[in-house]
Amino acid sequence: MILAFAPDSLSLWIAVLTIFLYFSIMYLKKRLIGQTPTKTQTIINIVINVLILAGAGIVILLANEAFSFRTLIDNFSDWITHQTEVLIGTAFVIIISLTVYNTIKVILNHSGKRKSNYEKRRKTIVKVVLSVARYAIYFVDAAIILSLWGIDITPVLAGLGIAGLVIGLGAQKLIVDFISGMFIVFERHFDVGDIVGIGDFKGEVIDIGLKTTKIKNWKNEVKLFSNGNIDEVVNYSLYNSVAVVEVRIPYRENAGAIIDLLNKEIPTHLPDLPSLLTPPAVVGMIDLVDNNMTFRITATTVSEQHYGIERAIRKAVKDILEEHNISYPQTEIKVIKDDDNA
Q1: 282 phi and psi, to 5 degrees?
Q2: Which pLDDT does position 296 carry in this prediction?
Q3: Which has fewest Cβ within 10 Å: 133, 170, 234, 306?
Q4: Per-residue pLDDT tens for 28-78?
Q5: At a CB cut-off of 8 Å and minimum separation 6, what does 21 contact?
Q6: How far is Cα 59 from Cα 52, in angstroms, rounded to an integer?
Q7: pLDDT at residue number 121
Q8: Phi-psi category of 279—alpha, beta or left, where left has phi over 0 and alpha has psi -120 to 50?
Q9: pLDDT one-digit tens code per residue, 126-140
């Protein structure tokens, strides 16, 4: 019964066996490399896949009695001879395109390294221009290479016009993302390196593309936003930040003396802080509650650097209060005992 379904050619059996061996090796390789391969393991993985597929193809071809390496080599040699000019032209186009793109990249990156007040702006423009240049070079390369191989691109371009209309109707979201990306860049909503808040996510802009914008928060979490979905943005990097610290002092202390003491001593208790632009100053008493006075201290800092300044000011205030024997505010709890219900 089994022999009735046996194949007539040995090549079919070899093909089945090759496929079985291929998937077996893939399974073992996955177990050895793991779920998160390193860069070296990824390269080894690609090399192994190419070798396995090439070996499987050679084995299947050798199993076919009609196959001849001599015939294959002769046919390939004739094809190379007839297509030499086209192959050289294709290689020339690719080399020229890579040279042009790398030249543009080097020039833009070199200009982006110059220190100026518009450094963030320049980095943003560099990334967008490189993105546009890459897609433009891809398109021009494809058109030239198709022409070299004798393919008339006129019908292709006409078809692309119709296809573009159809795709445009179905890909309106993509077009909106592109247009929004251009407005973000040229209207300077934000630049690469700015700290922005989009929705409930706040972080540094690390990349602006034609379609998406990448934001990285302080936990190194990166979130991608489609440019068309960015409706409201808070840019924290346009102006300097203000550090605000509120200190509670017991009511029995002299308010004027406390203000003078803090204004005099805080600058001397702070370490060297390059991001601090103006010395901390007590703006006054802002609240009286629970037998305590609340004083507000402010200082101007580099944008989004006020967090560290606030921590330094709090520590300085604590040291000053301890040095001058000024007590900390205490919360009083009164317990009233009802003797009648005892």
Answers
A1: -80, 120
A2: 94
A3: 170
A4: 666 665 555 666 766 776 777 777 767 766 666 665 555 566 666 767 677
A5: 56
A6: 10
A7: 64
A8: beta
A9: 777 777 788 788 888
Question: Are 290 and 229 within 8 A, CB to CB?
Answer: no
Q: Where are the alpha helices (DSSP H) in the chain?
A: 10-33, 39-63, 69-82, 84-112, 119-148, 153-170, 172-186, 255-269, 306-323
- Please tell me the distance from the alpha carbon of residue 277 to that of residue 212, in angstroms, as a whole number: 35
CA gap 129, 135 in Å, rounded: 10
Kindly state the tokens that stand for 258: 């406390």
Residue 112 pLDDT level (bands cut at 50, 70, 90): low
Q: Does the pLDDT of residue 300 top 70, yes or no?
A: yes
Mean per-residue pLDDT over the chain, rounded: 77
Cα separation, 186 vs 121, in Å, equals 10
